[in-house]
Amino acid sequence: xxxEDQNKLYHVIKDYIPKxxxxxxxxxxxxxxxxxxxxxxxxxSKTGQIQxxxxxxxxxxxxxxxxxxxxxxxxxxxxxxxxxxxxxRELSRINSIFQWNDRPPAFKNKWxxxxxxEFDRRELGFWFYNNGVKTYISGAHYMYLQWTSIDVGYPDFxxxxxxxxxxxxACKADSRCFGLDYLKIRxxxxxxxxxxxxxNTGTLAxxxxxxxxxxxxxxxxxxxxxxVVPIANRLPFFFKPIQDGMDKPKTExxxxxxxxxxxxxNMYDDVDEELTGLDTTIDWKNTDDNxxxxxxxxxxxxxxxxxxxxxxxxxxxxxxxxxxxxLGSKIIGKCMMGSTSNALGxxxxxxxxxxxxxxxxxxxxxxxxxxxxxxLFIPMEWNMEGFIDRYGMPVFYKPDKPVVGVDxxxxxxxxxxxxxxxxxxxxxxxxxxxxxxxxxxxxxxxxFRDESKASLFNLTKIYxxxxxxxxxxxxxxxxxxxFYWKDGVKDSEVIWTPDSRGRxxxxxxxxxxxxxxxxxxxxxxxxxxxxxxxxxCDSYDISGTVGGGGSNGxxxxxxxxxxxxxxxxxxxxxxxxxxxxxxxxFEEVLMACVFYxxxxxxxxxxxxxxxxxxxxxxxxxxxxxxxxxxxKLSKTEKELGGIPNTSEDVxxxxxxxxxxxxxxxxxxxLDSVYRSPDEMxxxxxxxxxxxxxxxxxxxxxxxxxxxSSGLAIMANQKNVYLPEKKQSKISLNFATYNNKGILxxxxx
Length: 748
Hints:
Blueprint (H helix, E strand, L loop, with lengths): L10 E2 L6 H10 L5 E3 L4 E3 L6 E7 L2 E6 L24 H4 L4 H5 L3 H20 L1 E5 L2 E5 L1 H9 L11 H15 L5 E5 L6 H13 L6 E5 L3 H17 L8 E3 L7 E6 L22 E5 L14 E5 L10 H8 L4 E2 L2 E2 L2 E6 L8 H9 L16 E5 L25 E2 L5 E2 L3 H11 L4 H10 L4 H4 L11 H13 L7 E7 L8 E5 L5 E3 L11 E4 L2 E4 L5 E6 L14 E7 L11 E7 L4 H15 L3 E3 L5 H8 L19 H6 L7 H18 L20 H9 L9 H13 L1 H4 L15 E2 L6 E2 L2
Parallel strand pairs: 3-5, 8-16, 8-17, 9-12, 9-13, 13-16, 25-28
Antiparallel strand pairs: 1-4, 2-3, 4-5, 6-7, 10-11, 11-12, 14-15, 18-19, 20-21, 20-22, 22-27, 23-24, 25-26, 26-27, 29-30
């Protein structure tokens, strides 16, 4: 099972810019490299002309206009693919610009067109026919394919890497962006791509610094010495800058003069006069929260960012390092970050947070994501070694007949088929399976799988459900939206409206006959749909905290078995957010309760939400703690309702409620105890599932979604928690009498 269009890394946006505007600006060559706010598009063309507008991960990117100079390896389309060309032998004998200067004019005239062409391709990118299709690669990608020597010779062309480099070019061009956060599979080539970009950037820049970080200092050093330095040393002379120090340095590459473009106009110039006063370096730093603190960086390559282990923290490091890439409000440098993820308890949780904070769909008033980075995930099947054909395209499923691979070997199986077989073989070893998912993820949730031994609940069922949810088009099952009072009149009628920016996710809305129904007793409102379901809520009291942190507020709606036109035993609403003020959160929770006319169970250690309900006349909506009879409640509990979070019994009951729900209604019921084994659970809120997977009963405050969802379960099962009334130990023996006759006679 997989999502519709999952195996499309991008799509062309038709008629994104009016044709007349496009034609006019192309004629005038006035499209400027960078972010165009008028059309909300990032232009990566440096020619002044654009053609296709493509969407990668929600970012509109304008590619250069294709000219007539499209390289064609062969006239037959089946023989058209990427092919690297060796440096001409005569030029390979030249090791420096000084040797070039010593060559006679006839030699220079013979090769100047070739050199100019390579500089143009480096700057503007390269067009070639690939299986009959005109295909564009960026300049950085061209440098990687054509001039980057790696451990197996030179890189293969892969469509996945083409998309990566186009997205990276857009990140560089976009003035709102600090760089790229790439969630990858194992052996995707990121380390070499990052090393190539270090050299590409460092050999062009003046008075700049390029930095390298990795999961450990030794890893950063190894990347520098084993990848960056050899790549720089093997560049052709016309790209190779004049270097200070050793040919194989251990800590820093220092360039006195960056690689200047050799052209017909300057090919006879002597560079000796330019050798002083410049400072361009590539170096690495030890892994630390304060690495590069106070430095100014043009480029930072951040390798293995998902594997930083305590005490080092990738989140803390990025907060510091981010300042190295800006001058005031202006972004002056970019970060290329990429990694697979460790288990969440081994650094993966911080990387996951950073990746989520890099989502392009959520921007602040400055147009930036929360982290400043742009996230990118490419599924495993696009980049799996051994399953890439000669055109760089992945073979997803077993072909009808063998396909020639990019390495010349025959491909007889498909990447997805291979992956599924591995998954099937590891199903009985949860930790081995989760490690395989992290190394070769097909979805983002695969990439952040945790170790089973760290989970309080049944991870197998949770991940079954997450995988199933990933296969769905979630818009068909859960809708984002918001609630509001009709005509702005509070305590009137609550209206639900879909809204992509809304904080609620809803999988079921009650019909008109069940919504906004409440009764009033002695001036207090009560819900009427408690027989259908109830809400659970993890609230907060303070609008903001120092530094803008603080946990989210969370609300969950859950049905019980019912005879109404409503699902049974199904979560139907999820809300996990922290609005600008606590009062907004309180009102949104209240509106949800009124709309569905269901009661709510709230932790009472943060009572402002309960006071909000009481002061507005909705005390009847707030459930009392289910583990005590009314006459045993404290004065405050009687006044407000709610349940404490300090009681160990309550904590255990809360966790047991979630555990029981997962066993019954989440994932596959192989034993057919609760439903058919062919029937998947119907828990559509993946964020809550992931929170359950990480839940730690000893540190509950970090798991907002788990707290509120568990309270919703307890609210629907309140009778389970009521203590039994103790039988009186006092024996009441009344005397009995025979009342026949005149006198009563005692019966003994």
